[in-house]
Write a structure and sequence with these properties.
two-stranded antiparallel ribbon; mainly alpha; 4% strand; three-stranded mixed β-sheet; 75% helix; 12 helices
Length: 313
């Protein structure tokens, strides 16, 4: 069988959902709507947290980081599929494929770490409210955010480089709609056990471990919520936690099913749909569930609109 390095390959072809032309049209419309909502919601949230001094808190600092991350994440994954569908060319260059793979992994890995750090922030705020300003000071928040980004970018670099060093077969058709690392790995002609082991270790560190920490944080949070005497207070707190946990389960659940499933299970078509969930649906829901439904954000939007109307008048 013909073997070649990545440097001898000039272009890759995406299969996408070409086997299901009717589904492909529906998915195009849905992905376009998700991307526009994601872009609008996260951009609004970033500007609000910058312009309103009342939102200059650790919680909204992390949320603005998450919004910025989600914009890049969505732009690196489903968006190329939209571009290819419009142009009718399901192709990508070598450098484009490597860049797409890296940014998709980097943004996804960073979000895994950042979500767990946000859960810790909520734990400190609810369970240790008096010490919260001291524990979560500005320096600590910046260090946590920077640590999340560095961890995600470094692990993505390790995974991407490990795949780029492999020899490829003559086949340059990727059975996916992006340069997803598991789909690209199937083009290799050599033994990929070491790469798979590396990915397994990184996946365990970035998926079940952060999710376990999130569950512990919310267990303590719910324990404190049950002590709230006000029925309305308990109901509001439970509603917020349930919404947050829904996004966490949706994001981690789909990612876990893809990256930690047994190697004997090969369901590429299902993986494509799951990739759309955690790379398209979750970034769209994050600003809605985490922030735009909060009273503080609604007040900030209202004040910002009133201020702009007064300036224009």
């Amino acid at each position: 069988m013909f073997q070649a390095n990545w440097t001898s390959v000039t272009v890759f072809f995406f299969m996408g959902f070409s086997h299901y032309p009717n589904v492909e049209i529906i998915l195009f419309v849905l992905c376009l709507l998700m991307y526009l909502i994601t872009l609008l919601g996260n951009t609004i949230l970033i500007f609000i947290t910058i312009l309103d001094s009342h939102l200059h808190t650790p919680m909204y600092f992390f949320l603005s980081n998450l919004s910025f991350l989600d914009i890049w994440y969505t732009s690196s994954a489903p968006t190329p599929m939209l571009t290819n569908f419009i142009s009718g060319k399901n192709t990508i260059s070598l450098s484009g494929c490597a860049t797409q793979m890296y940014f998709s992994l980097a943004m996804g890995s960073t979000e895994c770490v950042l979500l767990s750090m946000m859960a810790y922030d909520r734990y400190v705020a609810i369970c240790n409210p008096l010490k919260y300003p001291i524990i979560m000071n500005r320096r600590v928040c910046v260090q946590i955010a920077a640590g999340s980004w560095v961890t995600g970018c470094l692990t993505a670099l390790v995974e991407t480089m490990s795949v780029l060093l492999l020899s490829l077969c003559g086949n340059n058709i990727i059975n996916h709609f992006t340069c997803e690392i598991l789909a690209v790995l199937k083009l290799a002609c050599v033994d990929t056990s070491m790469v798979q082991l590396t990915m397994l270790v990184i996946s365990i560190l970035l998926l079940p471990v952060p999710m376990f920490l999130i569950c512990i944080s919310y267990a303590f949070i719910l324990s404190n919520i049950l002590r709230i005497s006000s029925v309305d207070g308990r109901s509001k707190a439970f509603s917020t936690c349930a919404a947050h946990l829904t996004v966490v389960v949706l994001f981690y659940g789909t990612a876990l099913s893809m990256y930690l499933k047994p190697s004997a299970v090969d369901s590429q078509e299902i993986d494509k749909f799951m990739a759309l969930v955690y790379a398209g649906l979750t970034p769209m829901l994050n600003p809605i569930i985490y922030s735009l439904r909060n009273k503080e954000v609604k007040v900030a939007v209202k004040n910002l609109l009133i201020r702009n109307l007064l300036i224009l008048s």
